[in-house]
Specification:
It contains 2 helices and 15 strands. The protein is mainly beta. A 6-stranded mixed β-barrel has the order 2-3-4-15-14-6. The chain starts with 15 loop residues before the first strand and ends with a strand.
């Protein structure tokens, strides 16, 4: 299974919680079994996680991803690309009060990392029986979102977070493998294969200074989500 991986270093680490930024991009793929949170879920799921970067060719990325997907025991594969989090020409957030006018002022502070989150809506799905080759290769645009702005402008949020809160991320979906006849001794009837977006999250606090005051008051804490990976999930139906 791993003959195609001779030029790629694989690092197997212990099961830990996936909390933003613990998977470094080091010029090759890294693999580990981890937990990752799903939208609307209170429990975590053990997953195989790979990080890739642009030092790998497209064919190398395709090869390693498809090798893992071809393993019937891998029911969820998460592929992350840290380079998708970098955006150019992002304006900085001005948190200093300027000359007073009859307007309320807002600032965004205390930006910190949150846990990675898998989206609940699938980007692509394929279903087939034993022996069928499933393929869901395509590119999708996934919107960056914030849970609340508490009065702060999109420009202020963008400057503080380091990426556009109204932008999108082009997520490349790569996945092809043959539906196996048996998994863990069970006879397979069919397999549903779905790709979901994976988001890097950041938490932030918004403060307000009313027009007739010089005191900043915290308005609330929000969460921003920017897509930077794909979760490939398999759901088997058995005979």
């Amino acid at each position: 299974m791993f003959k195609k991986l001779s030029m790629i270093m694989i690092m197997v680490l212990s099961v830990v919680m996936l909390a933003g930024g613990i998977l470094p991009s080091v010029g090759h793929a890294q693999e580990k079994n981890e937990s990752i949170y799903n939208d609307n879920d209170t429990e975590s799921t053990e997953s195989t996680v790979l990080t890739v970067d642009d030092s790998m060719t497209v064919s190398e990325q395709n090869s390693i991803i498809n090798d893992y997907l071809s393993d019937p025991n891998v029911e969820e594969l998460i592929v992350l690309d840290e380079s998708l989090l970098i955006e150019d020409n992002v304006n900085e957030n001005d948190t200093n009060p300027s000359a007073r006018a009859i307007i309320n002022k807002y600032k965004v502070q205390n930006v910190r990392k949150g846990s990675d989150v898998t989206g609940s809506s699938g980007l692509a799905t394929a279903i087939g029986g034993v022996g069928v080759v499933l393929n869901i290769g395509q590119t999708k645009s996934v919107a960056t979102t914030v849970s609340a702005n508490f009065g702060a402008s999109n420009a202020a949020l963008t400057g503080a977070l380091g990426y556009s809160v109204t932008g999108t991320t082009a997520i490349t979906i790569i996945g092809q493998f043959t539906v196996p006849s048996k998994v863990n001794g069970k006879s397979v009837k069919s397999l549903k294969f779905t790709a979901y977006p994976v988001y890097k999250t950041k938490l932030y606090d918004v403060y307000k200074m009313p027009w007739n005051s010089f005191t900043w008051t915290k308005q609330g804490t929000g969460m921003a989500k920017k897509a930077y990976g794909v979760s490939y999930k398999k759901v088997y139906t058995y005979k």
